[in-house]
Design brief:
Elements: E1 6-12, H1 17-20, E2 35-36, E3 39-40, H2 41-50, E4 55-62, H3 67-73, E5 85-89, H4 94-106, E6 114-119, H5 127-140, E7 142-148, E8 155-156, E9 162-164, E10 172-174, E11 178-181, H6 182-191, H7 200-206, E12 212-215, H8 232-266
Parallel strand pairs: 1-4, 1-6, 4-5, 7-12
Antiparallel strand pairs: 2-3, 6-11, 7-10, 7-11, 8-9
Helix pairs in contact: 4-6, 6-7
Length: 267
Protein backbone atom coordinates (compact mmCIF):
# COMPACT_ATOMS: atom_id res chain seq x y z
CA UNK A 1 0.00 0.00 0.00
CA UNK A 2 1.33 3.46 -0.92
CA UNK A 3 1.76 5.75 2.10
CA UNK A 4 1.84 9.42 1.04
CA UNK A 5 4.70 11.52 2.46
CA UNK A 6 3.63 13.35 5.61
CA UNK A 7 5.01 15.28 8.56
CA UNK A 8 4.01 14.95 12.21
CA UNK A 9 3.30 17.65 14.78
CA UNK A 10 3.26 16.08 18.25
CA UNK A 11 1.71 18.41 20.81
CA UNK A 12 3.11 18.30 24.35
CA UNK A 13 3.15 21.97 25.35
CA UNK A 14 0.09 21.95 27.61
CA UNK A 15 0.22 22.61 31.34
CA UNK A 16 -1.15 19.19 32.43
CA UNK A 17 -3.01 21.02 35.19
CA UNK A 18 -5.84 18.51 35.56
CA UNK A 19 -3.39 15.63 35.60
CA UNK A 20 -1.00 17.22 38.11
CA UNK A 21 -3.82 18.27 40.46
CA UNK A 22 -4.32 14.65 41.50
CA UNK A 23 -0.65 13.87 42.16
CA UNK A 24 0.13 15.92 45.27
CA UNK A 25 3.72 16.30 44.11
CA UNK A 26 5.45 19.58 44.92
CA UNK A 27 6.98 20.05 41.46
CA UNK A 28 4.82 19.82 38.35
CA UNK A 29 5.37 16.74 36.21
CA UNK A 30 3.95 16.49 32.71
CA UNK A 31 1.92 13.38 31.95
CA UNK A 32 3.72 12.84 28.63
CA UNK A 33 6.95 12.08 30.52
CA UNK A 34 5.52 9.31 32.72
CA UNK A 35 5.45 5.67 31.62
CA UNK A 36 2.92 3.02 30.70
CA UNK A 37 4.24 -0.54 30.55
CA UNK A 38 7.87 0.45 30.20
CA UNK A 39 7.61 3.32 27.70
CA UNK A 40 6.76 6.98 28.17
CA UNK A 41 3.39 8.35 27.11
CA UNK A 42 5.14 10.62 24.60
CA UNK A 43 7.06 7.71 23.06
CA UNK A 44 3.92 5.59 22.74
CA UNK A 45 2.07 8.50 21.13
CA UNK A 46 4.81 8.90 18.52
CA UNK A 47 6.09 5.39 17.82
CA UNK A 48 3.24 4.13 15.57
CA UNK A 49 3.94 6.99 13.14
CA UNK A 50 7.55 5.82 12.81
CA UNK A 51 6.29 2.42 11.64
CA UNK A 52 5.01 4.05 8.45
CA UNK A 53 7.43 4.65 5.57
CA UNK A 54 5.84 7.99 4.63
CA UNK A 55 6.97 9.91 7.74
CA UNK A 56 9.28 12.74 6.61
CA UNK A 57 9.71 15.07 9.60
CA UNK A 58 8.61 15.52 13.21
CA UNK A 59 8.12 18.63 15.34
CA UNK A 60 7.44 18.17 19.04
CA UNK A 61 5.97 21.17 20.85
CA UNK A 62 7.07 21.38 24.49
CA UNK A 63 6.35 23.52 27.48
CA UNK A 64 9.07 26.17 27.63
CA UNK A 65 12.02 24.85 29.62
CA UNK A 66 11.03 21.22 29.15
CA UNK A 67 12.71 20.60 25.79
CA UNK A 68 15.41 18.41 27.36
CA UNK A 69 12.78 16.30 29.12
CA UNK A 70 10.88 15.84 25.85
CA UNK A 71 14.03 14.60 24.10
CA UNK A 72 14.57 12.03 26.85
CA UNK A 73 10.90 11.01 26.78
CA UNK A 74 11.12 10.22 23.06
CA UNK A 75 13.60 7.48 24.02
CA UNK A 76 15.35 5.90 21.02
CA UNK A 77 13.07 7.68 18.55
CA UNK A 78 15.12 10.82 19.21
CA UNK A 79 18.11 8.98 17.68
CA UNK A 80 16.43 8.17 14.35
CA UNK A 81 18.79 10.10 12.10
CA UNK A 82 16.87 9.52 8.89
CA UNK A 83 13.91 11.65 10.00
CA UNK A 84 14.45 15.32 10.96
CA UNK A 85 13.10 15.97 14.45
CA UNK A 86 12.72 19.38 16.10
CA UNK A 87 11.78 20.18 19.69
CA UNK A 88 10.36 23.68 20.09
CA UNK A 89 8.75 25.62 22.96
CA UNK A 90 5.01 25.98 22.48
CA UNK A 91 2.88 29.07 22.77
CA UNK A 92 0.27 30.23 25.23
CA UNK A 93 -2.48 28.22 23.51
CA UNK A 94 -2.67 24.99 21.56
CA UNK A 95 -3.42 26.96 18.40
CA UNK A 96 -0.30 29.04 18.86
CA UNK A 97 1.82 25.93 19.56
CA UNK A 98 0.65 24.11 16.42
CA UNK A 99 1.10 27.27 14.36
CA UNK A 100 4.70 27.58 15.53
CA UNK A 101 5.31 23.95 14.61
CA UNK A 102 3.82 24.40 11.15
CA UNK A 103 6.00 27.43 10.51
CA UNK A 104 9.06 25.36 11.47
CA UNK A 105 8.02 22.65 9.03
CA UNK A 106 7.61 25.29 6.32
CA UNK A 107 11.29 26.17 6.74
CA UNK A 108 12.43 22.63 5.97
CA UNK A 109 13.34 21.70 2.42
CA UNK A 110 11.38 18.44 2.50
CA UNK A 111 8.67 17.32 0.12
CA UNK A 112 5.38 16.40 1.78
CA UNK A 113 1.79 17.44 1.19
CA UNK A 114 0.10 16.20 4.37
CA UNK A 115 0.66 16.92 8.05
CA UNK A 116 -0.65 14.94 11.00
CA UNK A 117 -1.35 16.71 14.30
CA UNK A 118 -1.46 14.31 17.23
CA UNK A 119 -1.82 14.68 20.99
CA UNK A 120 1.37 13.75 22.81
CA UNK A 121 -0.85 12.36 25.56
CA UNK A 122 -2.76 9.94 23.31
CA UNK A 123 -0.54 6.84 23.59
CA UNK A 124 -2.89 4.14 22.26
CA UNK A 125 -3.00 5.26 18.62
CA UNK A 126 -2.39 2.47 16.10
CA UNK A 127 -0.76 2.37 12.66
CA UNK A 128 -4.12 1.19 11.25
CA UNK A 129 -5.90 4.34 12.48
CA UNK A 130 -3.13 6.54 11.11
CA UNK A 131 -3.23 4.82 7.72
CA UNK A 132 -7.02 5.10 7.43
CA UNK A 133 -6.90 8.79 8.35
CA UNK A 134 -4.06 9.39 5.89
CA UNK A 135 -6.04 7.69 3.12
CA UNK A 136 -9.09 9.89 3.68
CA UNK A 137 -6.96 13.04 3.93
CA UNK A 138 -5.09 12.12 0.74
CA UNK A 139 -8.44 11.84 -1.06
CA UNK A 140 -10.30 14.82 0.45
CA UNK A 141 -7.60 17.12 1.83
CA UNK A 142 -8.43 16.64 5.50
CA UNK A 143 -9.64 13.88 7.81
CA UNK A 144 -10.15 13.25 11.52
CA UNK A 145 -11.04 10.07 13.40
CA UNK A 146 -14.30 10.29 15.34
CA UNK A 147 -16.77 8.14 17.27
CA UNK A 148 -20.53 8.48 17.35
CA UNK A 149 -22.12 9.87 20.51
CA UNK A 150 -24.14 7.11 22.18
CA UNK A 151 -24.89 8.70 25.55
CA UNK A 152 -27.73 11.17 26.07
CA UNK A 153 -26.50 14.77 25.88
CA UNK A 154 -27.65 17.63 28.09
CA UNK A 155 -26.70 21.30 28.20
CA UNK A 156 -26.56 22.88 31.65
CA UNK A 157 -26.16 26.39 33.02
CA UNK A 158 -23.64 27.63 35.59
CA UNK A 159 -25.77 26.32 38.47
CA UNK A 160 -25.95 22.81 37.02
CA UNK A 161 -29.58 23.01 35.90
CA UNK A 162 -30.43 21.28 32.61
CA UNK A 163 -31.52 23.92 30.12
CA UNK A 164 -31.45 22.03 26.80
CA UNK A 165 -31.67 18.49 25.42
CA UNK A 166 -29.65 18.59 22.16
CA UNK A 167 -30.36 16.08 19.43
CA UNK A 168 -27.35 13.74 19.36
CA UNK A 169 -28.04 12.68 15.78
CA UNK A 170 -25.01 13.56 13.71
CA UNK A 171 -22.83 14.34 16.74
CA UNK A 172 -19.40 12.71 17.01
CA UNK A 173 -16.48 12.69 19.46
CA UNK A 174 -13.34 13.76 17.63
CA UNK A 175 -9.91 12.23 18.26
CA UNK A 176 -6.39 12.66 16.90
CA UNK A 177 -4.41 12.23 14.71
CA UNK A 178 -6.02 14.90 12.58
CA UNK A 179 -4.46 14.97 9.12
CA UNK A 180 -4.63 17.86 6.65
CA UNK A 181 -3.21 19.38 3.52
CA UNK A 182 -0.11 21.05 4.94
CA UNK A 183 -0.42 24.20 2.82
CA UNK A 184 -4.08 24.68 3.73
CA UNK A 185 -3.60 24.06 7.45
CA UNK A 186 -0.68 26.50 7.56
CA UNK A 187 -2.83 29.12 5.85
CA UNK A 188 -5.71 28.39 8.23
CA UNK A 189 -3.48 28.84 11.29
CA UNK A 190 -2.11 32.10 9.95
CA UNK A 191 -5.68 33.35 9.59
CA UNK A 192 -6.57 32.08 13.07
CA UNK A 193 -3.65 33.69 14.89
CA UNK A 194 -4.80 34.89 18.30
CA UNK A 195 -8.14 33.09 18.15
CA UNK A 196 -9.18 30.22 20.41
CA UNK A 197 -10.16 26.85 18.95
CA UNK A 198 -10.85 23.41 20.35
CA UNK A 199 -8.82 21.59 17.71
CA UNK A 200 -7.18 21.94 14.31
CA UNK A 201 -10.24 20.69 12.45
CA UNK A 202 -12.15 23.75 13.70
CA UNK A 203 -9.36 26.06 12.50
CA UNK A 204 -9.29 24.31 9.13
CA UNK A 205 -13.08 24.49 8.68
CA UNK A 206 -13.21 28.14 9.83
CA UNK A 207 -10.79 28.94 6.98
CA UNK A 208 -13.37 27.64 4.50
CA UNK A 209 -12.08 24.13 3.88
CA UNK A 210 -13.92 20.81 4.15
CA UNK A 211 -12.89 18.13 6.62
CA UNK A 212 -14.08 14.52 6.61
CA UNK A 213 -14.50 11.90 9.33
CA UNK A 214 -13.30 8.32 9.46
CA UNK A 215 -14.28 5.82 12.16
CA UNK A 216 -12.15 6.31 15.25
CA UNK A 217 -10.94 3.82 17.84
CA UNK A 218 -12.50 3.49 21.31
CA UNK A 219 -9.08 2.51 22.66
CA UNK A 220 -7.48 5.69 21.32
CA UNK A 221 -8.03 7.55 24.57
CA UNK A 222 -6.20 10.60 25.86
CA UNK A 223 -4.40 10.68 29.21
CA UNK A 224 -6.15 13.43 31.15
CA UNK A 225 -6.25 12.56 34.86
CA UNK A 226 -3.68 10.96 37.15
CA UNK A 227 -5.99 7.95 37.49
CA UNK A 228 -5.39 7.25 33.79
CA UNK A 229 -1.89 5.99 34.61
CA UNK A 230 -1.31 3.24 37.12
CA UNK A 231 1.03 4.34 39.95
CA UNK A 232 1.14 7.88 38.49
CA UNK A 233 1.76 9.50 41.89
CA UNK A 234 4.71 7.23 42.65
CA UNK A 235 6.16 7.73 39.18
CA UNK A 236 5.76 11.51 39.39
CA UNK A 237 7.45 11.70 42.78
CA UNK A 238 10.44 9.66 41.58
CA UNK A 239 10.61 11.60 38.32
CA UNK A 240 10.55 15.00 40.06
CA UNK A 241 13.35 13.97 42.44
CA UNK A 242 15.54 12.61 39.64
CA UNK A 243 14.91 15.70 37.52
CA UNK A 244 15.94 18.00 40.38
CA UNK A 245 19.16 16.05 40.97
CA UNK A 246 19.96 15.99 37.26
CA UNK A 247 19.49 19.72 36.86
CA UNK A 248 21.51 20.43 40.00
CA UNK A 249 24.37 18.31 38.66
CA UNK A 250 24.14 20.05 35.31
CA UNK A 251 24.22 23.49 36.98
CA UNK A 252 27.31 22.54 38.98
CA UNK A 253 28.96 21.22 35.82
CA UNK A 254 28.21 24.42 33.90
CA UNK A 255 29.50 26.56 36.79
CA UNK A 256 32.72 24.53 36.85
CA UNK A 257 33.21 24.92 33.10
CA UNK A 258 32.73 28.69 33.36
CA UNK A 259 35.23 28.80 36.23
CA UNK A 260 37.81 26.84 34.20
CA UNK A 261 37.27 29.00 31.11
CA UNK A 262 37.63 32.18 33.16
CA UNK A 263 40.82 30.87 34.76
CA UNK A 264 42.29 29.99 31.35
CA UNK A 265 41.50 33.49 30.05
CA UNK A 266 43.21 35.11 33.06
CA UNK A 267 46.26 32.90 32.59
Amino acid sequence: MHIPPFALVLTAAGSSTRFSSGLQVGAQVKKEFLSIDGHTVLYRSAEPFFELPGLCAVVVTCKAGCEDEAVVAMEDLADVGSIPMLFIPGGETRQESVHLALEKLAQLNIGFDLVAVHDGARPFVTPDLIIRTLAMAFTHGAAVPALTVTDSIRRIDASGKIIEVPDRKGLVRVQTPQIFSFARLLEAHRLAAGKSATDDAQIYIDAGYDCYVIEGDENNTKITFSSDIKDAAEQASTYAAQRARGREDRTHSEMFRRFVNTAEIRT
